[in-house]
What we know:
Layout: E1 13-17, H1 24-29, E2 40-44, E3 58-61, H2 65-77, E4 80-83, E5 86-89, E6 95-99, H3 101-116, H4 128-146, E7 151-156, E8 158-163, E9 167-172, H5 178-181, E10 188-196, E11 202-207, E12 217-218, E13 229-231, H6 235-242
Parallel strand pairs: 1-7, 1-10, 2-3, 2-6, 6-7
Antiparallel strand pairs: 4-5, 8-9, 10-11, 10-12, 11-13
Helix pairs in contact: 3-4
Amino acid sequence: MEVHLPHQRRWCKALIFAPAGHGKTCLLGTAQEDERTFPMAFLDFESGYESLAGLDIDIFPIRSWRDADQIYEALLDGAVKKVGGEEIDFSEYRSVGIDSISEWHRWALLNILEEQGPNRKNPDLIEQGDYGVAAVQMRRTLRKYRDLPMHVFYAAHAKQADMPREGRITLPDMSGQLAEEVAGLVSVSGYLALSTNGDGEEERVLLMRNYPKYRVKARTKWGGDVPDELVEPTISELLDILGYSENGGKKKKRRK
């Protein structure tokens, strides 16, 4: 067990949620442009990394629990491991991006079905109990990744739900209580919206505070202040406003 002062926090833990096509993957990719988060290990669950084409970033396709566990252990230990025939020094990574936890959750459900389906009356039916099992698996794994000694950025799809006394709200696309709980695991939960500015141009806006119809929040240092939103956000800007100012926002050269 370690004891530390509040100002000694070093790592940002953030969740970005939005519908497909709003730019979540690109936003996570901007971590590769800031030396506080460079280099990033990008864990891909969606095969949607085409939007990162041209960016020099290490992408790890995750297609099994074994893949996810191996990458986690390598990041935790800072080990040199061979991945796809290439030796990678995992101690170099300063951040990890996970795209997306919504797809990861669906994948966990399908994995249960693949293992147990052949013994069921209907091998293609996800049963009620499967949601509970998958939720526990996700809670355990998301916390493990969150607690890594590095910056951690989750992406998630968005969904709408009717809540008592609140009406219809937008929150991360996870089943059951996990949709509410996942925001509690991170320092920042932001919704990436698409908007039109005064010139009629489309822009991305990260909602972070004072939007009661969205499950957003942002923690900052004592006495600090966070804007309600960021227009055309980057990871650098997010770290700056949250007080993670160590090393500034300078771009670092790609490691050899």
